[in-house]
Queue: 2 jobs
Job 1
Amino acid sequence: MLSFKIALRFLTSNKLQTAFIIFGIAVAISVQIFVGLLIESLQISLVDSTMGNAPHITITSSRDEITIRRWEQTVAQLDRYNFVEAISASANGNAYAKKGSTIKPVLIRGLDFDSADQIYHISEGLYSGRINNTRNEILMGKDLAQDLELKPGDSVTITAPDGSNTTLKVTGLFDLGISSINKTWVVTNRDVAQKMFGYGSRVTSIDITTNNLFYADVFANLFKIMLDDKDIKIENWKQLNESLLRGLEGQRISSAMIQIVIIVSVAIAIASILAITVLQKSRQIGILKAMGIKNRDVAFIFLYQGFLLGIAGALVGVALALGLLQSFISFTTSDAGVPVVDVFIDYFLIVRSWIIAVLAATLAGLVPARNSLRLNPVDVIREG
Amino acid sequence: MDSIIELVGVDKVYTVGSVETQVLFGINLSFEKGSCTSIIGTSGSGKSTLMHIMGTLDMPTAGSVVIDGQKVDGLDVNALAALRNQTIGFVFQFHYLLPEFSAMENVLIPCMIKNRKVDRQTLERADKLFEMMGLSPVKHYLVTKMSGGQQQRTAIARALINNPKILLADEPTGNLDSENSDRICNIFRDINQEFGTTFIVVTHDTRVAEHTDRVITIKDGRIESDIRI
């Protein structure tokens, strides 16, 4: 308790110096948290824009035939896992859409709309018309509709690979923000697609989203073991997006490196400042030793100083970081009110950075603590 | 009478690089419990070194030191610290008070080192010491706000708070005017009589020595005379 009291008094007796040290720590910690949060937000928005409208795991047929047998049973099995958020069984097929003299290749997606919408968020991307509720109605990607000059209410002829033609009515147009989808997707009722491609009652794909897309590979492996079905192929998004994952990993490592460098600099700065305070306070330490204070308690004075500086510096640092983020958001928001980066405040990252900063500052106190052990009281007294 | 400090054949040699300087030569001294002694000598005679050795702040190069029946050589740093804290009080030429603390806090520090907390009895003792020192009105002042005489008297109160058996004072009046010097000498006398504390005062001021019962003169690291008054 005496060590803590002395540490606190040493800090409060020289307020200006202490304020400078705290400010120095705070600036470093705020940069660390700001950079950490910004990179994390960039990652989240990158993953969100890439994966926001895509399934995490997709099950298709592994056999020559394109359709999946016993798919209802598989869906029922998958539905039991609590980490599965949405399942959509769809009947898909390539076809051609014809309007007047324009013919475009399309991907017919025969969906159970309600479950599929939880994965693809088509209703959110619908910018014209309405959702198709009945048979023989379709929704169409924005670019495809432009190519074919279609608008809600128009009809379009779809030609299946076997040459059969079906005329369907466009009820709505969507923009999912992904060019390949906007250019090729024609969304219809599953029954319509099954009939169009002659799939009977089967589907060609089971799409799944989970509560943690970064565990998609683990979940996919679990499905392989649990479903134990040689007729199906289970793929996760990580297999199909290796370059994205490498990019994210690169970002993560660079963010970690920046944070480590900042923390090390903070620790070195605190250690040097406190090492100087050992010299500043050598008279006091010398006389305390003459009065019989134990070396351990003297060492604790400097550990406590590091700890207190760390707590205060990191607290101010967190406040500065949040201020920096707020300024960043207001400076980078466009006139339309859309920020360049959707900043996601990760409280875990903030608390973790704060704890690491306090630990680093306390450990930095070890250097002056060690120096103080070498201080001989008689030298101080002799020098006067 | 029992002796509280015993020095037998104490030598002290300082080595700086390859140069060796011997400052004490075979000192044999014994101090009785409750006695009041002054050690006088000119600057550089070795009297302060002798006091540092008696206070376990420094170790002799040869010879042995026994304090309150305990042989000092062989004790580790923490045992020496505990011995100093509980048995010896120091007063130096400079007060060495902690400027960050008030007079009262400074006085209580040795007690906090000893017991880690301050009880009611200690506070009462501190109040009594401040009263003896004539410092009651300023006891809660920051030490930097006190006069030189007040600071030195606060340092004496700090040296006495743990009720030590020995009080070692090195030029305690060196920085004070004659009025304050006399006041401090009288305080030493009063404390010696009231608490039975053994006083050893190192000084070059013969007026301070006049207040003691025994005067040891040290010259060039050797005892020149040892007179009981």
Job 2
Amino acid sequence: MNLARRTLIGIPYLWLVLLFLVPFGIILKISLSDIALAIPPYTPTLDLSQGWSGIRDFIAGLDWENYIFLTEDDLYWRAYLSSLRIALISTLLALLVGFPIAYGMANAAPEWRPTLMMLVILPFWTSFLIRVYAWIGILSNEGFLNQFLLWTGIISDPLMIMNTSTAVYIGIVYTYLPFMILPIYATLERLDASLLEAAEDLGCSRASAFWLVTVPLSKSGVIAGCFLVFIPALGEFVIPSLLGGSSTLMIGKVLWEEFFNNRDWPVASAVAIILLLILVIPIILFQKNQERQAEAEA
Amino acid sequence: MPADDATPWLDPDQTPLIRFDGVTKQFGSFTAIDDIDLSIYRKEFFALLGPSGCGKTTLMRMLAGFETPSAGTITIGGQDMANIPPNRREVNMMFQSYALFPHLSIYDNIAFGLKRSSMPKEQIGARVDEMLRLTRLEQFARRKPHQISGGQRQRVALARSLAKAPKLLLLDEPLGALDKKLRQDTQFELMDIQEKTETTFVIVTHDQEEAMTVASRVAVMDHGKIIQVDTPPRIYENPNSVYVADFIGDVNLIHGNARSLPDGLASLAWAEGAPEIMGTAGEGLSASAPATFAIRPEKVAISVERPTDRTNVVQGKVHDIAYLGNISTYHVQLPTGQIVKAQTANNRRLSRRSLTWEDEVYLSWTDTAGLVLAG
């Protein structure tokens, strides 16, 4: 292998090392440290001026204490489980809402598709934070939704949506819906219309052609969309803390509180490492799906 | 020609399998099919031939049920097909793109239609195996469509559309995606399969050689109308119009004014001072009206000496020679400037080529070799 090729292959690896492995190593190290009233707020720190004995002291100061602590306090594993549940349900809801939208877009007249695509992407032009704040204005007890429902007479007392997990589901589904729609739309749009005609020609009704042809052929898009929603939703922090109030337990929020309220960097780092390990599984599955799809198209 | 099993269209007692009665199809203000009447008989291999946009695909899609006529009726096996959706017709279609289901194996692709029918499970396996044998695909049954070659995919598409033993099989440009050599082999395979299965085939193609090779009858279409329906030899030798003569094969066309002669002959005055051309009178030719003389290049003889035994002789100069291996085509320029093509078979290897560019030659043909057509 010549130098030019090595360099070319080396660049992405360098990128990975600098922006993933090095920060990961730092966080891993902090997670093995102890909390301290100092700057930075943990001990030990590496002191190279002491030479070998400094390094020995440094390594001797590292332990698994914080991980053991995480198993002792049920707050943490309840937060992990609750995050998993919320992420799973949100992903399912996003799929239920996103698939029909993607299907409608793919079956719209070709001249309308760029406009519809624009409408899906348009929210990204506004700050994510502002959009989540906007939901507070809609969902709160005096918000637009309650005012409208009270005005129409459907309800007599305002609905308590704000600061419940319902608000979190609404927030997550709303925010991550484009990530569900776009990959599904991409597979449905490529779907050869003659496949559906062939299915009908061979005796399928419209509905069974949908189940036997459209659904299996959009599988890779559905899987991609589900992972793209599930992975960020699992670690989500802004939505549960703005819309979910104190009653919603999510690991992202716990992480934030450990870092900024308790200033316990070592425990927060341990929480982050465990979260990463949980996410590695779906990320690997996602990669496998992408590879399989690329293979099938080759 | 006596009517028999091979030529049911000549027998007035035969009832056609498919009948189009005054069928018109409009897409908005565009008329794709313009008042067509057509009968297709059982076990026929019927070709719809025409340039793209002539309506042949629309006609086929109406048979499959994907389009409904704007006016007129289509009957298949005596049954009016209006309001019968594609999945309730005993008609199967082989799609131009093949439309194989990419997520299913070859076996499951072929079994797809059978699983939707009332056929018992144990018979489905036997039927699929039969189809795999018929199309020589046994060893590919477990593969997915993207794991086999284009020619194999074409056979899977055929096997899938034949699996339900339809009354009528529609083939939309079935060989369009294959290269020339494979296409020719597959044409004969198609004819074999059609004979073995005794299914009525309707094929849509823009390739006239393909239509001539496979079909029992050919319908030549243009602008939503059927111009001529006939057997391949009659389409070639007795085109009913200049359009058909020009569309099928190579032809020399000479414009002029016609004059009727006895014995079904006609003559054409085509140039001042030149002797009139004699030919067979075409359908609907009226006297002293504008007409066109059409003659195939292989029926025009070329010689250095003036032939004495032929009715029509013209003199010209060799303008171009196209050597095609099996035949040579001479482009001869007449004194009027018109180019007439003459074809000779190169049936002797390394024969001395006596003719070359700019040679003065005589072109000649008999009085029945060409047709004088109206228009």
